[in-house]
Every structure is written in C-alpha cells, then in structure tokens.
Automatic annotation (TrEMBL):
Region (Disordered): 391-412
Membrane-spanning ranges: 87-109, 166-190, 217-237, 243-261, 273-291, 303-324
Keyword line: Membrane, Transmembrane, Transmembrane helix
Record protein name field: TRP C-terminal domain-containing protein
Keyword Amino-acid biosynthesis (UniProt): no
C-alpha cells in the first residue's frame, strides 16, 4: 500500500492543475476529473447517497445560494460552497478515523478494569494514535484544505446565515487551522529527531533521513507546496493569468529543489518524482498556450490532446513503476518460500565467511604476539650480557690500570 500512497501523492499536484480557471477542450477535463476522484480516494460514490442525504436537510431557499464557485471547480468534484457537501468520501473517512480514535480513548479508560480492553488499547494505540492519523492527514490533505478554503472564501459574512451554514463555516475554520498547525507540528517533530520513532516514521518514510538534511523535511515541504497551490487555485479563481504565473514559479522551484536535493533513498523514486515535476511544468505551459489561443479552435484541440497525453503518460509511468516494484517484492517472497535451501546456504556462507574472518584475525593476533615475545626475549638476553660484561672486566684491562697507578705514584 505504501507504493500506492506514494504514487497518489506524486500525481496529486499534476491532477490538481485541472482546477485552473481556463476551459480545457475535448475530453481532457473529464479524464482529469476521473483521475482526481481516484487520487483523492473519492471512491465511495458519495454523490449517489451522501449528497442526497445532506441535501434533504437543506431548505429550498438555501439551495439557491449553495451553488459551485465556478465551472472549473465543479468539474473536479467541488459542486458546492459548503464543506460537508464538498468533502465526499473524505467525510466518511474522517468520521471513521474520529470514531476509531474515540474508541481507542474509551479502551484506555477501561484498560485497568478489563484485560480485553487493555489488549485492544495496545493494538489500536500502536496503529491509530499517530501513524494512522498522520497518514490520513497526508493522504486527505488536499480535499480537506480545498473544501474548507472554499467554504471560508464563500461565506466570510455568516452572522445572518442559517445555523447549518454557520456550522459548516465554523467546522471549515477548525479544519483549516488544524491542517496548517499540523505542518508546523510535523516540522517540530522532525527537527527534534523524534521522526525516527515508529509512531512518527511516516513523516520520513522513504527519504534520506540518515543524513539529517533537507531530505528529512521533504514531507513538510510537500504539504507546504500543496497549501500554496490550494491558496492560488481557490483564492485567485477570477484571475487565471496570475494562477498560471504563480503555479509555474512554484513548479519550477519544486523541480529544481527535487533535482538538487534528491530526497529519496531510492534512485527510482527520485527519478519518478523528478519526472512528475517536469510533467506538471509541461502541463502548465500547455495551459498557458490554451489561454493565449482562445480564437484558434484547431490549436486549442491539439493543446487539449497534449494535456491528455501528459496526464496519461504520467499515469502510465507511475503505474508501471508500482507494478514492477510489486512484482519484484512478490518474486522475492515466492523465491524465499520455494527455495529455502538457497536461503540456508546463503546464511551458511555468511557464517563461514564471518568465522573465516574471525579466525584470520585471531591468527594474525597470535603471530603479532609471537613476534613481540621473541623481540622481548632477545632484548632481555642482550641486557644480561651487558650487565655481565660490566661486572666481569677482562684481566688485561685490570693489569693496565694497575700499571697506570704505579706510574702515577712514581711521578708523584
């Protein structure tokens, strides 16, 4: 699943460019809408049951005010100005996540009274309190930010609004603030070195976290980039030229940073991420061409085909990478189960090599000790000989000394 999450995160910036306020000819817009549904995991068909359920609580007079911000946001699934209507499947996932967290808290309260509650708390706390929550925030970051920002932008004056609209607005502000604070929280966790713990490992998953450089903060940078993109797409819906300028600058900066930092531990991941960044830049250039050729219908159709080709090429390359990596991992697991003898022989070879290296080191150490002992013995022998020569002087030397003494006496 980590491979699929990574692919969705890599493609999300490119897919979100369909929200730029420029009409896209042909079938490029429907294809992009389908891809955005997949990337944002809006796969529960909430338009058929959840939207109808929420609309039943809306009065007919309120329905007239609840219209899409523009056609471009509507084509990508944001068909309302209200938070709950725009969240779609994300709302269901959010409710499930909140329910599981509340259930985990209840098991924590009951853990002293029930052994079963303690076991459930240990199981859920290890998976939900941090790891699952962080992964949920990363995966659903863009839908939550888009929906809350659209609601805040559309209903800035809500004092005279019905309670339902006030509730949506208040919830939007809370989610918007929580999302932005989570970026700061993730930065602090990585800065303090706590991301190496299992509960925070999602923040540095797949990156070069061992070098403690900018690579460790790549998830934080990705969330910040998504935030800037959401601000541009939602707050500048009436200014498509400024949208293209800012998004192109953001894309070029992100591509340069990706090329220079190489944040992932795998060369394949670095190459694919750089490829996706380049595809996003090419997509923006194609949108600039569309904006500048509003009267040339043939050229607009061709540029629409270019947009489709960029989307399909990026999707194909990313899917191919995921399929190859899944195939390699499955092949390794099958080979481990089918050929256990090879694994055993490999282990035996490693043990023999380790034993041989240890034996060589011991033999070398013994040889060094023998050489040292021989040198020490030779030094001791030489010293004894010198001492012996000093105590037992030769007779010729003593006689010559006596002769010298007699000569000195005569002279005196």
């Amino acid at each position: 699943m980590n491979l699929i999450w990574s692919m969705m995160n890599d493609l999300s910036f490119l897919i979100s460019l369909g929200l730029v306020s420029i009409p896209i000819p042909g079938i490029a817009s429907p294809i992009q809408s389908l891809l955005s549904t997949i990337i944002y995991m809006d796969v529960l068909l909430t338009d058929e049951w959840l939207s109808a359920l929420l609309e039943n609580s809306i009065k007919p007079s309120e329905m007239e005010d609840d219209s899409p911000v523009n056609l471009f946001l509507e084509s990508q699934g944001f068909k309302s100005k209200l938070l709950l209507q725009n969240l779609g499947s994300t709302l269901v996932f959010l409710l499930i996540q909140i329910f599981l967290l509340l259930y985990t808290g209840m098991m924590w309260l009951l853990r002293s009274a029930s052994f079963l509650a303690e076991k459930q708390y240990q199981f859920l706390s290890a998976r939900l309190l941090w790891g699952s929550t962080i992964r949920f925030l990363i995966q659903q970051f863009q839908p939550l930010l888009f929906a809350s920002l659209i609601n805040i932008r559309s209903f800035s004056h809500f004092r005279s609004q019905p309670p339902r609209i006030i509730f949506n607005y208040s919830l939007s502000v809370a989610i918007f603030a929580f999302i932005l604070l989570s970026i700061i929280g993730f930065y602090v966790i990585i800065k303090k070195g706590k991301a190496t713990e299992n509960k925070f490992a999602t923040l540095i998953e797949g990156t070069k976290s061992y070098n403690s450089g900018f690579s460790s903060f790549w998830t934080v940078w990705t969330l910040a980039k998504w935030s800037l993109m959401c601000f541009v797409l939602v707050l500048l819906t009436d200014y498509p030229a400024q949208q293209l300028q800012l998004l192109l600058a953001l894309s070029i900066f992100s591509t340069t940073l990706q090329f220079k930092v190489q944040p992932f531990a795998s060369k394949i991941e670095n190459s694919i991420s750089l490829f996706n960044e380049l595809m996003a830049s090419f997509y923006i250039y194609a949108l600039i061409g569309l904006a500048s050729t509003s009267n040339n219908i043939l050229l607009r159709k061709n540029l629409g085909l270019v947009l489709i080709a960029i989307l399909l090429l990026a999707l194909f390359i990313n899917l191919l990478k995921v399929i190859i990596q899944i195939g390699i991992s499955l092949f390794k697991k099958i080979s481990e189960k089918c050929c256990p003898s090879n694994n055993k022989s490999t282990v035996i070879k490693k043990k023999i090599k380790k034993y041989a290296m240890t034996t060589i080191k011991e033999e070398k150490q013994e040889e060094d000790e023998d050489v040292f002992d021989r040198q020490l013995k030779s030094l001791i022998i030489i010293k004894k000989k010198n001492n012996h020569n000093e105590t037992q002087l030769p007779k010729s030397f003593s006689r010559s000394m006596q002769a010298q003494d007699i000569t000195l006496q005569e002279l005196g």
